[in-house]
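User:
Note these tokens:
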Amino acid sequence: MTIGQLAKKCNVNIETVRYYERRGLIPAASRRESGYRQFSDDTVKRIQFIKHSQEVGFTLKEISELLSLRVDPKTTCADIMRRTEGKISEVEKKIQALSRIKKALIKLRSTCSGRGPTSECPILEALETVRGSR
């Protein structure tokens, strides 16, 4: 299939396909005599793997590592599970950080009545004070 057909089938942009190819996430396509890239059905599966992996939080670098591990005969399911556990731990830290940010924003919001000029806004004043004390 052509790059356009592949992109449409995978619901990605053509530039995304090119980017994945440059990054080595998908194999380089063979070329027809006309010079057009020719992609296989395996590439569709590979892009679906990449997109699903991104949806659950893996970065492209991590996905590249997972793809490499997948074809390494020494890799076990336990290796993949450890990577997944690491990702879970990373997500939990992000959730905690976001929770702290939310609490700080709620506290800031509670100081403001929403009336008056910005020169007297307690939120802006608090942000200025925090920034200036660093």
Observations:
- Residues 84-134 form one domain.
- The chain has two domains: 1-75, 84-134.
- The chain has six helices and two strands.
- The beta strands are 30-31, 37-38.
